[in-house]
Amino acid sequence: MKSIQANCWTIVGAATIALVTLVAYLPALRIGFHDGWWYLLWSATMDPPRYLVQFFDPANITQGYRPVQGLYMYLLYHLFGFNPDGYHWAHNLLHAANATLMFLIVATLGGRGNSANRPYHPHRLAFVAALLYAVLPNYSLAVFWHAVVDPLAGFFYLLTIWLWTRFLDTRRARTWALAFAVFLLALLSKEIAIFLPLFLFLIEWWFYGEKPSWRVDAPRYAPFLIAFVPYLWLVYQVQSHGEFAGQFGFRIGTHNLYLSTMASALVFALVLETLWRRMSARRVASVALAGLVACGVLVSGARVADAAAGLAEFTRQIRVPFRDISRAHPTFPPDTYVYFVHSPMTSYWDFEGLFFARYGKNVTVNATDAGRPANLRAHAHAYVYYFDSTGKPIELPVDRAITTRVTPALPAQFEAPIVLAQYEVPSNRLERGKALVVILNWRADAQLEKDYTVFAHLVDHKGALIAQADSQPGNGKSPTSEWTPHRTFVDAIVLPIPDDVGTGADLRLELGLYDSDTMRRLNLVGANGAPIGDKIVIEPFTVVAQEK
Q1: Cα gap 294→93, rounded to integer Å
Q2: CA 134 to chain CA centroid, nearest Å
Q3: Which candidate, 258, 289, 284, 287, places its Cα nearest to that of 271?
Q4: Beta bridge partners of 387
């Protein structure tokens, strides 16, 4: 009878937790895609062999060795394409499964030992802990963001633990094999799974009371440890050149919050369970505690909804510039190229994903934040977009047949180890009310100690100033002291053309660098190292009337 009641508790509790989780995270369907377009683009453009190489060959990986995540995203793309709802449903279901697995694990481990000496009700403790974990909003982005691996890795992580408890209860070899297989999936999903064998051993020792024994433990845990040998080699190969190693290092930190929050939920549930036990004789107190849990769930659910609404508004704003462009261009001709200059909100990856989802392979996207040279005239059709003060994209068609000259000839060497290697302009016909955009390819030949300011002055044939821009590179976000030596740094300067400038004027652009502390300009030097001036001149530019 007690076994039947326990099974009923388990079924009802698991179903309730899964349902509450799905309802709490249902607002995720309003968000759309938040970053992570690269997985969709790779899935859409790579054949299966190439895609497998992308995620299994460590030479191609710049973040973490997580091929299971790549396979998961490939499956979702071929199920849902560019429909974000399918991805959100998948993440919501994974989170619901993780909360349910937490419930099963805590109930199983909490039920070990003599019930007479147990200071808590295992199913009630597990239910409250899993319910709180399911709706805690502090890691909601891990569920909202389709490109984050945490819900998937958490599923295999928790499933390994649950299957291990099944193995310890039944001692069946096939259950052990299944737990080991799921462990490998967890390991190939996220690096935190390296701690799983230790936790499995502690569960066996602490909850099942089995004393360590070489005869028993060696064959039981050896395969887990042997799996680390190729895995650690793969991780090392990735981290030796990867993006995470260069930017963040390889360490344990808040990026593992999705799973570690379970401990907080469990501690809070233990506090409530203690109060419940002490006040069980008072029906009013028990009802009050149940109401407290319900209120906590409702408040947390409301905060999750608020977080979803905020992220939905953020992703809507990201899509606004693309919406303006797509309304002006229902279609683009084949081999069209678009280049974005200092987008205030929408990243290169967002633009690339949005354009691919709408126009397919017809349009190639590049942007200043991608860090690659513009090469504006490498395609049949090209447009440059800069942004006005309201964030609206302004279109400049690229003229393929312009002729400009630059003095001195490029590459131009400054007295500091800085070189201007190349420049590009969409056109030398400037429209009043729009802007001159010049894209500059810089290079530092050594580590720079100072932060230099770039000046760009548009002047007429008499030297009178028409427009100017003075700022550190990258709109002030990429000071020269942070440049990587011998690597091209792509920057762009936008100079608005006044409405009252005369048409047909013969204008030139003067560029250079100066030290903002002393206001002294850096000299350009010739091949012999002698100074040859303090500015680079690009000309000619002609002003035309604003098109109606």
Answers
A1: 22
A2: 23
A3: 289
A4: 393
What are the CA-CA distances from residue 513 to residues 469, 478, 480, 535 (Å)? 12, 14, 11, 8
pLDDT of residue 244: 47
> What kind and span of H or E run contains 246?
helix 243-247
What radius of gyration do the chain's Cα atoms show? 30
Q: In degrees rounded to 5, what are phi and psi of residue 354?
A: -65, -40
As a whole number of angstroms, the distance between CA 479 and CA 473 comes to 6
393-397 and 524-525 as β-strands: parallel, antiparallel, unpaired?
unpaired
Q: Using an 8 Å Cβ cutoff, are 467 and 495 in contact?
A: yes
Decide if 267 contacts 125 (C-beta within 8 A).
no
Q: What are phi and psi of 373, to 5 degrees?
A: -55, 150
The residues that bridge with 397 in the sheet, in sequence order, are 383
Domains of the chain listed by start with CATH number? 2-309 (no CATH), 329-397 (no CATH), 405-544 (2.70.50.60)
Q: Chain-centre distance of CA 53, in angstroms? A: 22
Q: Are 460 and 425 in contact, with CB atoms under 8 Å apart?
A: no
CA distance 241 to 172: 42
Distance CA 437, CA 425 (A): 6
The DSSP call for residue 33 is -
The whole-number pLDDT of residue 245 equals: 44
Please give the Cα distance from 133 to 269 (Å, whole number).
Answer: 10
Regions of the chain where pLDDT drops below 70: 1-6, 113-120, 241-256, 280-283, 286, 546-548
- The pTM for the full model equals 0.87
Element (DSSP H or E) covering residue 249: none
Give the span between the Cα atoms of 94 and 83, in whole angstroms: 18
Q: Can you read off the two tokens belonging to residue 270?
A: 């233990």
Determine the Cα–Cα distance for residues 448 and 57; give it in Å rounded to an integer: 36
Instruction: Give the CA distances from residue 15 to residues 21, 22, 253, in Å, rounded to whole numbers and listed in that order.
Output: 10, 11, 32
Residue 23: which region, alpha, beta or left (left: phi > 0; alpha: psi -120 to 50)? alpha
* C-alpha distances out from residue 109 to 5, 166, 199, Å: 17, 11, 13
Strands 336-340 and 363-367, by their bridges, are parallel
Kindly report the three-state secondary structure assignment for every residue of 127-145. HHHHHHHHHCHHHHHHHHC
Beta carbons within 8 Å of 44's beta carbon, 6+ residues apart = 77, 356
Cα–Cα dist 422/408, whole Å:
12
